[in-house]
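Bench log, entry 3. Co-assembly request; chain sequences pasted below exactly as received.
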Amino acid sequence: MTTERIPSQMLKGILEGAILIIIGQGETYGYALHEALNRLGFGDIPEGTIYPLLLKMQRNNQIVGVRHPSTTGPDRKYYHLSATGEQDAIAFSRQWQQLAAAMDQLTEGSEPREDED
Amino acid sequence: MTTERIPSQMLKGILEGAILIIIGQGETYGYALHEALNRLGFGDIPEGTIYPLLLKMQRNNQIVGVRHPSTTGPDRKYYHLSATGEQDAIAFSRQWQQLAAAMDQLTEGSEPREDED
DNA sequence: CTCTCTACCTTGTAATGCAAAGTATATAAA
DNA sequence: TTTATATACTTTGCATTACAAGGTAGAGAG
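Structure output for the full assembly:
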């Protein structure tokens, strides 16, 4: 199992972008986001991280939240991207690619072997 | 020119790992590190970021610094990895790969087109 | 009625990148 | 000599971020 925990310091500034992209692929709510991030390999991001972040993104007019009742539990707050959020999602993708490219440059031809553990 | 500025929040926790890897590829000093990071595409990381980080890494016994006189300017403090630092560099590489894999999953088949604007 | 799963929110803390300012050496220009 | 520039390292304080810990509440199972 290569599922290694990503340190929280490494996620700083990336979670917001990741969430922008996820919401951009279809409106969703906090609790489902928690499961989506886990499924994608970001690890078990706690609710104490996700919900305050969503509220901040709402304050910054990146996302818009609408409450909907659920028949199987408490209300859900569905979020979708605003125009600003869409632009931010695109900007984040570019910045991520820039970072990934720099990291690629860094580890070019000097990666530690992992053939046999 | 696709050289986009990587936001500082996005670098949090990644700079340390990147520096571990660079120093692992051959001992170097702060000022040269500043240029190397720029050349690799990480952007113009200010000295107020690099030097305090090196001092912290030294306190944490990840790197070892040795002063050497220079004939072309002030003394240089050359750093090399400690045993701890080598392990941390390897751990960081794994964690980065985990993060990059999660980001790949995220943008799978749903990237914004850039063919034509 | 209690327990669990779902679903959201708040407060306070530690970690990180950075701006701003300072110190000091070597070299070239005035 | 004086001034300026590139090199080279350090410190203090700030804004941002992920998180732990705790709280609130609805729906269904026992």
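Helices of chain A lie at 8-11, 14-24, 30-40, 47-59, 83-106. The radius of gyration of chain A is 17 Å.
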